[in-house]
Structure prediction request, 62 residues.
Amino acid sequence: MSMSRRHYRAFAEILRYAHECHPEAKDAIDQVTRNIAGVCAEDNRSFRRQQFYDAACPETKT
Prediction:
């Protein structure tokens, strides 16, 4: 079963929450965000990494 937009949004929401609650762990959360985005991109060719990054950690432009 492939992931859906609902899954991607849930991941982004979790990561955004992590950024808000743990700003001291920004670098680690950014790395996790990139790794999750890579998995999502492998799952779906139409996955938009930048849109995901913006939703997961809007202060970060990767």
The chain has a mean pLDDT of 91. Residues 41 and 48 are 8 Å apart (CA to CA).
